[in-house]
Amino acid sequence: MPAKKKSNVARDWFNTIFYGALIAIAFRSFLLEPFNIPSGSMIPTLHVGDHIFVEKWPYGYSRYSFPFGSWHLWNGRFWGHEPEVGDVVVFRNPINESQDYVKRLIGKPGDTIQMIEGRLYINGEIVPRDNPRPYIIANLPEALRSAGYHIPEKNIMIKGNKIWVDNKPAEFNYTIEYKDDKYCRVNSWDCGVFEGTEYTETLPNGVQHSIVEMSDNAHFDNTMMFTVPENHYFFMGDNRDNSGDSRADIGYVPRDNVLGPVWFIWYSHNYYSPMLAVWNWGDKMRWDRFGMGID
Minimal CA–CA distance to 93: which of 39, 141, 173? Predict the structure, then answer.
């Protein structure tokens, strides 16, 4: 009798785990899938350390929507609607199918895309960018705070031509002189602070979003004219001078590779802060980004 009871307990545990796994797979495949942001290619919209939810149903489903999508079980999409220019989208990298990318949709089939001296042209028309403002892109192993400039992290203050870094403990406070208008280096951590310009860009369909440019003469600021082929899309990062996207690295993205639009940031923390350091959560969490929707 005890052996039978033990067998029933084991079976109940197996059923719980099995059906729980099925529910989790179905939830991730059909409804929402979580992703984290490991790079700064979508600054200022998405920051390193942001954790996002992606909606799986709006664009319908392809084999990449499900586990083992790389097995080529079928081609094409079913249900859903076409993404719109300006959508922030997660897709499977067509060059390396083990990687998921997040970028902004810039061109649909038949559109022409070109960069000329840092300006984006869609179908031969220049895309307006307005409201320039300074933007500091900082790569520091601690959080940063906005003060005087728009800085995505915390604990840096700009005063004139100096950056005051307020680190802990207090005896490590120091001042960094700018070498020029664009760049300075924090030697103690071998990390850089870079000044760019943030703009508001208005796409042809009226969608407005922020971009960051380091200059108008960077590597991808002058390109050939791209014509987006049928059943493909053209994607770019909002951090225009620091993004591997359709301009070079990944090319046109097949329609089947699209997973879905980014819905919102459900959690965000300083990427360089250890997650297990619970005592630092108060300073390391980006509380203002929790629940932030994505435009």
Answer: 39
